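(Structure overview)
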Amino acid sequence: MFGRETSNDFIPPNKDYHLEGYSSALEVVEKAKKRLEILQKVNVKNLNKQGLKEFNYQLGMDEFVISFFENHNNIYRAFLLLSEGKTEEAIPFVQKMNPEESIKIYSKIISDFGATRGEEGVLLSLNLRWLPDYIDVRQREGMIPIRINFQPTSHDPLAQGAGRHTFFIDSDKNLWHSKGEKELGIPAATNGTLPLKGVGDSWIEITSSTDIPLKTMRNFNLSAGKYKLELIYTESNSTANIQVLEKGKVISSSSENGILFTTVGGDVRLKITPGKGKVALAGVILYSNASNMPQ
């Protein structure tokens, strides 16, 4: 059963899979492979058009289950190691993760068979409640940049266990973690273009000295290491004094963009003090050594 709740997690990455009859994600994979062996013995020549369609659906669904739970095993192992500070040991598991493959398999299965509204909802959930966990782990390993954009966000106060994350997807299919007044307590605005076309179409308005947490997609602290911080303004004439703080202490300061800093893995915050007038900040990108830090 997939996607039967509304919380932040599609399946919690910090837990192995313990549905009745299964002791782990790998056992789910093992049993799915056995079902595939049975299905592959079917003589498809004896199937009519509808039968062949349903056969391919079941075949594809087990392929999806195998891909999904192999990925879950990898992220679960990586998550535990990262929680213990064993960044190097987690790398092989992170490198084997390929959630994009699972999503593509599921998308093709339901498209070929004729997707129901429920299946379309699961596909959406895979992209917005499952994929972000994998992006987060990659960010914690420093393999990809951390991208945060600023925009108005909304939450459903009546949903049981409602999710609290908003995302922006750019033209290169990168997911940005979106934050606004509900997350930061800072007024957010847009240029009126909906849906938002680019990161610069929305922003937060900073009128006084302001601290913004710099976290991964699932709000974990940055891993220890060197970073380059780039800020995206909506107005080229925005001026501000930029400081990076860790545990309340300044570790880097500049009025220029492209700030370099080194963290030991504590609570890191961006402090912006406007010069003249307000600062309209649309987004930030954090590059690490391993995520092709630009020069």
Remarks:
- The longest helix spans residues 49-83.
